[in-house]
Task: inverse folding
């Protein structure tokens, strides 16, 4: 049966990452370098950042290889099992990005946007992002609510959300009120 509701293409997964795994990764994130997050402006062809923007890092940390392996399994679960009714016309992907870490300190956020990510494609990798894989790594913060299509989606440490990366799935992270919120993201094309 073909799903006609946008929310039917959003899947939340638990059980791929346990609490100790998330704690170990979160501990290691305090030792890496971070860059201010930016958005690619297709009109100016430049990266822009905004006030109170989150920080991002692609640095290697212990357990990152295992994290990226599990992301592959989550993509398989979503495409080949949970959305298998689409197998006649959508049954694969070309690639996926290795995980990027997101850090939201107090008062930081991510503005409303969709994941039409240009920076993934450097000439060697080519494609259009079709899925976003977003995971939470900790719970010890306040605020920082994840809003997808205008609705709050609660993500606890170890839970992962998969949703289409196109303009129909705008999302944002509200400002963190206290603590530091850590997450990871990968994109499928």
Result:
């Amino acid at each position: 049966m073909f799903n006609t509701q946008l929310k039917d293409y959003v899947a939340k997964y638990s059980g791929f990452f346990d609490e100790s795994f998330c704690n170990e990764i979160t501990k290691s994130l305090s030792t890496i370098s971070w860059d201010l997050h930016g958005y690619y402006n297709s009109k100016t062809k430049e990266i822009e950042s905004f006030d109170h923007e989150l920080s991002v890092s692609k640095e290697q940390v212990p357990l990152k290889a295992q994290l990226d392996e599990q992301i592959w399994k989550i993509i398989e679960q979503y495409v080949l099992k949970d959305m298998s009714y689409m197998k006649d016309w959508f049954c694969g992907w070309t690639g996926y990005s290795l995980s990027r870490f997101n850090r939201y300190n107090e008062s930081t956020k991510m503005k409303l946007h969709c994941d039409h990510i240009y920076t993934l494609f450097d000439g060697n990798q080519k494609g259009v992002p079709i899925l976003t894989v977003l995971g939470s790594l900790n719970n010890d913060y306040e605020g920082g609510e994840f809003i997808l299509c205008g609705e709050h989606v609660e993500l606890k440490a170890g839970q992962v959300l998969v949703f289409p990366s196109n303009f129909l799935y705008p999302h944002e992270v509200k400002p963190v009120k206290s603590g530091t919120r850590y997450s990871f993201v990968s994109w499928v094309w």
